[in-house]
From TrEMBL:
Pathway: Nucleotide-sugar biosynthesis; UDP-alpha-D-glucuronate biosynthesis; UDP-alpha-D-glucuronate from UDP-alpha-D-glucose: step 1/1. The active site is at 280 (nucleophile). It comes from Prochlorococcus marinus str. SB. Coiled coil: none annotated. It is an enzyme of class 1 (oxidoreductase). It catalyses: UDP-alpha-D-glucose + 2 NAD(+) + H2O = UDP-alpha-D-glucuronate + 2 NADH + 3 H(+). SUPFAM superfamilies: 6-phosphogluconate dehydrogenase C-terminal domain-like, NAD(P)-binding Rossmann-fold domains, UDP-glucose/GDP-mannose dehydrogenase C-terminal domain. The lineage of its organism: Bacteria, Bacillati, Cyanobacteriota, Cyanophyceae, Synechococcales. One of its GO terms (molecular function) is NAD binding. GO terms for biological process: glycosaminoglycan biosynthetic process; polysaccharide biosynthetic process; UDP-glucuronate biosynthetic process. Substrate binds at residues 170-173, 224, 269-273, 277, 343. This is UDP-glucose 6-dehydrogenase. The keyword NAD applies. Catalyzes the conversion of UDP-glucose into UDP-glucuronate, one of the precursors of teichuronic acid. Its EC number is 1.1.1.22.
Length: 479
């Protein structure tokens, strides 16, 4: 007999929980979705009438929210009520890397996941399917099962029982709605076929059955970490090749195109850039490294750690190139930074390459003007851990005297006056359409454009009299 499902709860209203439940609600109008979070401000933003004020920016999200919110999709802080009424509970909370204690710097901190499991144990009624949506270290399901089954309150309530499934999310930010609408696969790991079918029935409303994969729970957990590790590994691979291109006269775009034609390699995820960012690649690889070390697989651990090491090296390399090209000193020089988000079409800055690169440039004394169409100056301040220069402290003498540089946010992109360089760090569409002749006239001479995303119109930049450095472009940089 099928397990009847009517109410679904998702704990965690973040980049995954919010869009995923919105998509499910839009595809399953007969089911009710409750998205809950301890962060009151975040929930208020999800409920904001002004859809441009949702807590996250994702193309296509506003339209789906308009269709579903307060119909069969509800955002609230009432965790107890949502758990009590739901037959399926997704855990979609953050799983950051631990910064102290056992496994610090590598292992994910499971305190939020554990807190959720305890809440579920306390409030659930009857049989409940608990779904790991967060990305978790392998064998976390065991921890969740232990908490659910050993909770004191539960042992007193005989009618309570649980199944734990793993259903990792593969969406990428910036394309989340497209990815959720048409996923390459939906992965469901578990050991109770009935529970797995109940979960897959939700997806079957729009995902073709052959794309829904059933595995055991540990394979599902490990497949998620492996998937991110493979993707990140491709970026570190091509970024390492970009450095070779620059010294040999080769062009990394041509190399990518040539190798991508090999169907065994494939053409996706071969764009050299300023280094991968985002909240997950580094965290998930480090989890894999920890797992390998734990089982004494030290060569395996160092293989995967190399992917993160190359990424760190590559981000520092970009700041160093800027400094070297600007005659070895950038003290007091105005540098325009275009883009702070870790990729285009998101307001997320977690682990963005821009953080490390901007910090390095400021430390070397540069005066940065940072532009991003979706990231707020408050967020940049939190990330850089350096206060934005105030309007009252812009005396150029004081800037030159200070050892450390400073930064200022600009909403406007027309900010090229007296700049020594422009550094493109995020591939926002609008940066492709800059009028280089106009920009050049306003800049100090000689001045540079550093394009770490290969998006500017190279010919126009050069025609306008600016010097161009493109990541991985040995042919241009040798001139
Ligand atoms: P997030 O930080 O955007 O959101 C997590 C939310 O969980 C926060 O709003 C937080 O307040 C809430 N939360 C934490 N503890 C809670 C509790 N006890 N009760 C209720 N709410 C609680 O994180 P995210 O980016 O959505 O990522 C969530 C998980 O999904 C992570 O494990 C991540 O690795 C994984 N993931 C993320 C992405 C992505 O693109 N961001 C993609 C796939 C998988
Ligand atoms: C990534 C994965 O693509 C998702 O499948 C996964 O669900 C998610 O992580 C997660 O687990 O969090 P995301 O980090 O949102 O998604 O974005 P990506 O498109 O993967 O980009 C990650 C980083 O790699 C960005 O900084 C991006 O600019 C960079 N990148 C990507 C490149 O430098 N070159 C490329 O060719 C592709």
């Amino acid at each position: 007999m099928n397990i009847p499902i009517k109410n679904i709860c998702c704990i965690g209203a973040g980049y995954v929980g919010g869009p995923t439940m919105t998509m499910m609600a839009s595809k399953c109008p007969d089911l009710i979705f409750h998205v809950v979070d301890i962060n009151k401000k975040r929930i208020e933003s999800w409920n904001n009438k002004d859809l441009s004020k949702l807590p996250i920016f994702e193309p296509g999200l506003e339209e789906l929210i308009a269709k579903t919110r307060n119909k069969n999709l509800f955002f609230s802080t009432n965790i107890k009520e949502a758990i009590e009424s739901s037959e399926i509970i997704f855990i979609s909370v953050n799983t950051p890397t631990k910064n102290k204690g056992l496994g610090a710097g590598k292992l994910s901190d499971l305190k939020y996941v554990e807190a959720c499991a305890r809440e579920v144990a306390r409030y659930s009624k009857g049989y409940t399917i608990v779904v790991e949506k967060s990305t978790l270290p392998v064998r976390t399901a065991e921890v969740i099962k232990n908490i659910l089954n050993s909770s004191e309150s539960n042992s007193k309530r005989e009618e309570i029982s649980f199944d734990v499934l793993s259903n990792p999310e593969f969406l990428a930010e910036g394309t989340a709605i497209k990815d959720l609408d048409s996923p390459d696969r939906v992965l469901i790991g578990g050991d109770n076929k009935k529970a797995m079918i109940a979960l897959s029935d939700i997806y079957k409303a729009w995902v073709p059955e052959e794309k829904i994969l059933f595995t055991n729970i540990w394979s599902s957990e490990l497949a998620k970490l492996t998937s991110n590790a493979f993707l990140a590994q491709r970026i570190s691979s091509i970024n390492s090749i970009s450095a070779i291109c620059e010294v040999t006269g080769a062009d990394v775009r041509e190399v990518s195109r040539a190798i991508g034609k090999d169907t065994r390699i494939g053409s996706k995820f071969l764009d050299s850039g300023p280094g991968f960012g985002g909240s997950c690649f580094k965290k998930d690889i480090l989890n894999l490294v920890y797992l390998a070390e734990y089982f004494d697989l030290h060569d395996v651990a160092s293989f995967w750690e190399g992917v993160v090491n190359i990424n760190n090296w590559h981000q520092r390399r970009i700041a160093e190139i800027v400094i070297r090209k600007l005659f070895g000193t950038i003290t007091g020089k105005k540098i325009i930074v275009l883009g702070f988000a870790f990729k285009a079409n998101t307001n997320d800055t977690r682990e963005s390459a821009a953080i490390r690169i901007c910090q390095d440039l400021i430390e070397e004394g540069a005066d940065l003007i940072i532009h991003d169409p979706k990231v707020s100056p408050d967020q940049i301040e939190k990330d850089l851990k350096i206060k934005q220069i105030s309007e009252t402290n812009t005396n150029p003498d004081s800037l030159l005297k200070s050892q450390i540089g400073q930064w200022k946010f600009s909403k406007n992109i027309d900010i090229f006056d007296d700049a020594h360089a422009i550094l493109v760090l995020t591939e926002w569409e609008e940066y492709k359409h800059i009028e280089w002749q106009k920009a050049s006239k306003k800049m100090v001479k000689p001045s540079w454009v550093f394009d770490s995303r290969s998006i500017v119109n190279a010919e126009e930049v050069i025609k306008s009299g600016l010097k161009l450095w493109r990541l991985g472009d040995g042919s241009k940089t040798k001139k």
